[in-house]
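In the current project phase, our protein records have gained a structure token line. A sample record follows, to show the layout:
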Amino acid sequence: MRTPLAALLLAGLACPALASERCDVPRAEWRTVEELTNDLTAQGWTVNNIKTEDGCYEVYGHDQTGARVETFFNPATFEAVGSDD
């Protein structure tokens, strides 16, 4: 029984990290939506909409392959940080 208990305790320690926001960037450091749109368009994306969620920009549109995407981006670096897929 010790192994399952240890696993539960370790999982409990990881939960606060999973519950935190995806992007932890002060609002003053955010780049503009227009800059993100321009960067993605230059990479061949089609941007339909951008909203803010979990401290990130969430982009709805199509990537350079034409696939429909809902992708989260760090608002300061524009690094992709995940998706809802």
